[in-house]
Specification:
0% strand, flat, 72% helix, Helicase, Ruva Protein, domain 3, mainly alpha
Length: 124
């Protein structure tokens, strides 16, 4: 009888943990959805239709760059730095600024090893 009660207790505890974990996941997903909706709402107020289309196309190709531009636009909107809706040409200027700031400089350095490499001897 003791093992039966112990098993039921385990089942109850496991089911409680499972439902609590599922509830936390659901709350996390709802929070992400609310954040996404809020971002889209702010971007709809800040960008005109052609600029939104360009940003959406950029998000398909380079999501990290599009996210950086979105964050930049949302920050500017929150601080009141934007005078009105940004057109496509204005978005292109912002994209160029972000590209210059996040541009990765790549250098290639050849490091040749000169071990027993003699051109004086000719191998036939």
């Amino acid at each position: 009888m003791f093992s039966y009660t112990f098993s039921n207790l385990n089942v109850v505890l496991l089911s409680h943990i499972f439902f609590q974990d599922a509830s936390n996941n659901q709350q996390g997903e709802e929070a992400k959805q609310r954040e996404s909706d809020m971002r889209n709402s702010i971007l709809a107020q800040v960008l005109d239709q052609s600029a939104r289309a360009r940003l959406s196309n950029l998000a398909l190709v380079k999501p990290e760059k599009a996210n950086a531009v979105e964050n930049y636009l949302i920050q500017m909107a929150r601080f009141g730095k934007l005078g009105g809706k940004i057109s496509e040409s204005g978005l292109i200027e912002i994209l160029e600024k972000v590209s210059q700031q996040t541009e990765k400089k790549m250098t290639v350095k050849f490091n040749r090893q000169r071990v027993m490499d003699s051109d004086d001897e000719d191998d036939y």
